[in-house]
Amino acid sequence: MQIKDAYTLNFYENNMTRLPKWCNDGDTVKLPFCQITGKYRMELPGYNTIEPYAHMAENCPSLPPDYYRPKYC
Length: 73
Fold this sequence. Notes:
Blueprint: H1 3-8
């Protein structure tokens, strides 16, 4: 599993009203996750979108520079 695989798994809180009040407080862009600190905003394409399944990503190609992965590889 790669970093992208970890943040795309669908097991994070998806109800933004349940996030802590300070999470997006004072930000003009409301993210679906809490970015605790940092000067730059994180971009996580596909965040919380893939339902986990058995043997996930065990045999997936992941060659640079695109790291393309076929769906349900």
